[in-house]
Amino acid sequence: MSINAIRPSAGLDTQALITAIKSANTLVLHAAVYSNFIHSEVGKFIRTKLVDGSLQHLEIIELQPNRHWRDEFISILRPQMTRKSVLSMFSNSNRWSKSLAFEFPQQVNQVFTQTLPLQPILIIGDTLFVGQYAHSSLTSAQGMWIQIECLSLGLKSGDLQTWYQHGLPSDLSGDWPLAISRYVEECRQSKLLSIHKTRSMTPIIKEEHQ
Prior knowledge:
Layout: E1 6-10, H1 14-22, E2 26-30, H2 35-38, H3 41-52, E3 57-63, H4 70-77, H5 83-103, E4 108-113, E5 121-124, E6 127-130, E7 144-149, H6 159-166, H7 175-192, E8 194-195, H8 202-208
Parallel strand pairs: 2-3, 3-4
Antiparallel strand pairs: 1-7, 2-5, 4-8, 5-6, 6-7
Helix pairs in contact: 1-3, 5-8, 6-7
């Protein structure tokens, strides 16, 4: 294993994320909400790559929480915010994703899911960025993140995207490929169990005001 194959960081390393996005032509975002991206350098860079065509495919998996675990997950996602504020954040995130899907319909796929997210995962080309949700006063963005350079751990270029789109190969073996595959499966299962991709977040917001 290369000494630089796995890089931990205290909080999401946004500069490392931007660097990875620069060389990637496919992205899969599975992070429940994307309000932090809307006016950030990450969001601006994603849009720039969509405009110039160097980002060929962007899949945005957005959460439409199941009412059975919604309130608990809201308190995990943003422990210092009110329930109403978090629901508004979901709505803003949805508008951002929806606007990208509308403007770049051949490149952006917006997927809504009600599967319980177990960790924030960003598949950036051949690189993974993985955080964790926790019952804590701090958000996942402030917690431990790991950056995994998959080519240094035995994967071939494009494997992550192939696994995400078509499933894991039946002959997959090796400790590192198997360990990495769990993150891809988390994203893939959310996609397979998704709600219709154009469904809005309106039902959640309406329920909050009833």
